[in-house]
Amino acid sequence: MDATGALPPTSTQEQQKQDEVGGGDGSYGVLLYYKYADVPDAPALAAFYESRCRALALVGRVRVGPDGVNATLGGRVAALEKHIDEMSSNSLFDGTDFKLASCEEPVDERVARECGFTSLSVRLVKELVTLCSNPSLTTPDISFAGRHLSAAEFHSVLQSVGTGSDTEAPAGQNDVVVLDARNLYETRIGKFHVPNVETLHPEIRQYSDLPLWIDEHTEKLRGKSIMMYCTGGIRCEMASAYIRSKGEGFENVFQLYGGIQRYLEQYPDGGYFDGKNFVFDHRISVGSNKDNILGTCLVCGSTYDDYSSRCRCSNCRMLVLVCSTCQDSTKEYVCELCLKNGKQCCEISVKQDCQAEPELSEPSDIGKLSISNKISTSKAPGSNGSEQLKKLRILCLHGFRQNSSNFKGRTSSLAKKLKHIAELVFIDAPHELSFVYQPHPDVCSDKPSPPSGTAKTKFAWLVSPNMSCHTMQDWKVADAPFDPLQYQEQTDGFKESYAYLESIIAQDSNFDGVLGFSQGAAMAALLCRQQQKTCGSPKFRFGIFCSGYPAPVGDFDREPIRLPSLHCFGGGEGHDRQIASRASTELAGMFEEGRCTIIEHDMGHIIPTRPPYIDRMKEFLCNFI
Predict the structure, then answer these.
(1) What is the residue-wise DSSP string for 515-563?
(2) What does the pLDDT look like over 238-254, one tens digit per residue?
């Protein structure tokens, strides 16, 4: 290992041997591990992961930060074992618990895609897990984390206090509480149950809600010996540190090392754990030999614990359990937390206007600067004079070198398909671009000639730092051939675009959501991120990001964007020749995982308006009517 924290390269022979591991036959597996440690050079370590995981044909998620690494990877067991050997040779990973489990290969592509198990995503982050979504709260020092107990030690304590024999317990029977650090949808299908011992289930939607729950229930924790558990252990690290940081009365915090996964490996009959362990990969859940079912269908109440249908609450997008008999694509579901808050569902059919029509495509060019303020609206008339549900108003941001008028024209099919549920509002970006063209010699003169006809002003949300700013209304030969990766260089102009959009929103505060295409999607994500930083949360109820990418502007990595989001893009290499599917997947990964919907298609750099893609977009939008 060098000073960067990255591993040294292997020999050519060993490299070739490792590269061949991922491609051969063999059993499939999933590997989970995390390590809190000071990483001297996180970018170098992330680059190593990117290179070696791809060489071994691994998929999944890797998060690298200055405070350590968190990884969930899938692939051939032999390749995963090779990866473990590689990482174990780095002293940075001394003492790491590599949890490797054999399993079936992903068979449901939709589930695998939603869990991030169709590709590899390596991201640099500021912190491995975001415990506190409030930026004003100080993240607890990980050195405060509770004492690790092995599965056997954890079981022994539970057994002692559960039977009234407290010789092995860290405290008396009445002084022990068991605390689940997971989300409600995980607890629904599996949890620890110890007779005569109080178990606390916070019933939170997301991990960042846990500190508030702890703050509101300190009296249940003060003076107790707290036995914490989660899926694999990483969430308990920061949560236990948060509890112990409260000082006197909160010193005795213990956590299950290796999480439920290690416990079920040690106690295949389930021990004190009932039901199934929810996991964040294509397996969805892992059970014990007990084979008992704790979950129930949200609709009919029958015994059920299968999340493979990926049904979600219409309001907050949290996963819900709905049995196969009750599943209906025209029905909305409301989780128990939303019901407590008085939120109801609204049923609406999404199977309408499904005729295939021309798709949207974005011209690819280069560009330049100025300000405009045009707003164009696409409204749909009422149908037969009958009373209509209030439509969603969606602010639409065009792509690079487009304007509100041609974007409206190119999305006319989309507007028609959504006319019963949405009103699309189009605006020009603030940066006016010069009239440029790629030179093509004239047949007669053998000299480049500009396009014929009147030039129409085009705009951009972000521009390249070295872009010249011509305001003259005549054609200019492009400085260079079109570069499909030009969007990676467009890093200027965000402050002007953000201020401009905020002024539009201030004038018309009735926008329900935002839709962006290509650079417009990148800008929409930047807008939501900046609103979250400034106001605590985005000002929209939802966002739709089509053929998007993470613009290299500022820092995306402090915490996920807390907004229900739909990401629509060409899946697989080559389906979108302008924005790689990997970039669109990376943008989707910057939003809250449990509230993110992905639609992949094979139709290029467009917004598809034919089934089944338009149906899934309607389903998403109907959640907010």
Answers:
(1) EEETHHHHHHHHHHHHHHHHHSS-SSSEEEEES----SSS---SS-B-S
(2) 999 999 999 999 999 99
* Residue 396 in tokens: 């639409």
Q: Which residue out of 53, 115, 132, 230 is catalytically annotated?
A: 230
Domains, the chain, ranges and CATH?
26-122 (3.30.70.100), 140-161+172-285 (3.40.250.10), 390-429+490-621 (3.40.50.1820)
Q: Is the pLDDT of residue 398 over 50?
A: yes
Are the beta carbons of 192 and 272 closer than 8 angstroms? Answer: yes
Q: How many Å from the N-terminal Cα to the C-terminal Cα in the chain?
A: 55
Q: Which two tokens stand for residue 263?
A: 């416990």
CA distance 475 to 365: 13
Is the pLDDT at 93 greater than 70, yes or no? yes
What confidence tier does 367 reach under pLDDT thresholds 50, 70, 90? very low
User: 42-55 and 12-21 helices cross at what angle (nearest 10)?
Assistant: 60
Q: Taking a C-beta distance cutoff of 8 angstroms, is the pair 173, 197 a contact?
A: yes
CB 117 within 8 A of CB 34: no
According to DSSP, residue 322 is labeled: -
Residue type (1 letter), 546: C
pLDDT of residue 338: 86
Contacts of 216 (CB under 8 A, 6+ apart): none
Q: How confident is the model at residue 14 (pLDDT cuts 50, 70, 90)?
A: very low
In order, the DSSP letters of 362-383 are -------------EEEE----S
Does pLDDT of 221 surpass 50? yes
Q: Which of 360, 375, 492 is nearest to 433 (CA)?
A: 492
The tens digit of pLDDT for each residue in 413-448 reads 899 999 889 999 999 999 888 755 445 554 444 555
With beta carbons less than 8 A apart as the criterion, state whether 376 and 426 touch.
yes
CB 277, CB 190: distance < 8 Å: yes
Establish whether 230 is a catalytic residue: yes
Range with lowest mean pLDDT among 245-249, 368-372, 462-466: 368-372
Strands 513-517 and 392-397: parallel
Rounded Cα distance between 426 and 404, Å, is 5
pLDDT (tens digit per residue) in 506-563: 887 689 999 999 999 999 999 999 988 888 889 999 999 999 999 888 665 567 898 9
**DSSP string spanning 54-71?**
HHTT-EEEEEEETTEEEE
Residues whose CB falls within 8 Å of the CB of residue 495, separated by 6 or more in sequence, listed in order? none
CA distance 84 to 97: 10
Confirm if 203 and 179 have CB atoms less than 8 A apart. no
Q: What is the 3-state secondary structure (H, E, C) of 100-124?
A: EEEECCCCCHHHHHHCCCCCEEEEE
Please report, as a single letter, which amino acid is at residue 294.
L
